[in-house]
# Entry
Amino acid sequence: MRQSKNSTASTENSGAKSTRKTWQKEAVYNIFSAMRNHPTAEMVCDSVYRTYPTIGRATVYRILNSFVDSGKAIKVPVCDGADRFDITTYPHSHAKCRVCGNVFDIDADFDMPEVRDSCGFTVENVAVLYFGICC
Amino acid sequence: MRQSKNSTASTENSGAKSTRKTWQKEAVYNIFSAMRNHPTAEMVCDSVYRTYPTIGRATVYRILNSFVDSGKAIKVPVCDGADRFDITTYPHSHAKCRVCGNVFDIDADFDMPEVRDSCGFTVENVAVLYFGICC
DNA sequence: AACAAAATGAGATATAATATCAATAGTAAA
DNA sequence: TTTACTATTGATATTATATCTCATTTTGTT
# Structure
């Protein structure tokens, strides 16, 4: 995603509410929530496309971002490549294989760094990412 | 992939790839290592450009990546925007402000999740990233 | 049905990073 | 020093990622 200078998210238009039901939102949610491989936006596009060839790419991107904004999904930072989207929102961490590039869920069996306030930084969320080899 | 087929039998740098000294590598290292704000590759480019206007953009990208490969720097995953490069390689974590976009070092005063082997995944490294607001 | 606003979709634009490849330049051998 | 070899560079093209623009369509409401 491009970095915007002074706004947090493009979908957050002051007071704008995405309340209207559309078949596009339904389609993206149904297909994305069935994917358990932390897909990129493009991967979701491809899947949605197979069933709904008329849907626009920008629409899929917009809808995925709206899921993140509304807490229905999270973005996983993976350092390289496209953003990953994760339908699993409970606290857990991720592992990325540097060979195959796949991203896996990792149960947070260690003490998950807790959200804290220090150094004048107000923490809202934390992401833990392991790098290594899966195979 | 390239093998030194006709080099003398005893090379001190066995397997070393980027061995030749160039003023470009010197320039990028000197300027990058003085930047303490987790710059993107573009930010390094801009800085290097001011002193060495003839250096190529691709060269800066290549050299920065070689620093990461050789362990002289790390890439910081920030979920949004361009990759960040960090000259500080000792174990610590990072915080990213969702308002100003800046990235800060955070001392790992909690128990840093340790590198482990679980679920068949061989962990080589771990990154902890806080999201929040700095101001 | 008619209306206003939200949402979409096609394409343009912005941004990020690597690939290509001829020319250059570092290093060792002669 | 000169030569030979090839790693490295740099201009440009290409690929990848993601958002923006805006005319058109659709939704929810009256």
Summary: The longest strand of chain B covers residues 121-133. Chain B has three helices and six strands. Residues 7-8, 19-22, 40-42, 57-58, 61-62, 65, 81-83 of chain B lie near DNA strand C (CB under 10 Å from a C1'). The interface with chain A takes residues 75-83, 93, 95, 97-99, 101, 104, 106, 109-111, 113-114, 118-134 of chain B (CB under 8 Å).
